[in-house]
Amino acid sequence: MAEPKFEVFKDEQGQHRFRLRAENYEIIVQSEAYASKPMCLKGIASVKHNAARAKIVDMTGEKEEVIEIPSPEF
């Protein structure tokens, strides 16, 4: 199986975007448009930094609930 990867590309309007592909090649995140490649790369860095620290909040019930998921064992 392939490794997950961020792909940087230009959209039809010439704007830079990124997408994150899972090991099974499915797109799991696609970014907004960025005017420049450096800004797009900063967007990737932000996602990587914030995702590692982000809580999971379930908002499907009557009140918000933080969900703890054990780290996957690879």
Can you offer a commentary on this structure?
The protein has 74 residues and is of the alpha+beta class. It has a single domain (5-67), classed as YegP-like (Double Stranded RNA Binding Domain, 2-Layer Sandwich), CATH 3.30.160.160. Helices cover 23% and strands 30% of the residues. It has one helix at 37-53; strands spanning 5-10, 16-21, 27-30, 56-58, 65-67. The strands form 2 sheets. Strands 1-2-3 form a 3-stranded antiparallel sheet, with helices on one face. A two-stranded antiparallel sheet has the order 4-5. 3% of the residues are buried.
Question: Nutshell version of this structure?
Answer:
The chain has 74 residues and is an alpha+beta fold. Helices cover 23% and strands 30% of the residues.
What is the approximate shape?
Answer: extended
Ends distance: 13 Å
Largest sheet: 3 strands, antiparallel
CATH topology: the name is Double Stranded RNA Binding Domain
Write the layout of secondary structure elements.
Elements: E1 5-10, E2 16-21, E3 27-30, H1 37-53, E4 56-58, E5 65-67
Antiparallel strand pairs: 1-2, 2-3, 4-5
Features:
single chain, about 70 residues, alpha+beta, Double Stranded RNA Binding Domain, three-stranded antiparallel β-sheet, two-stranded antiparallel ribbon, 5 strands, extended
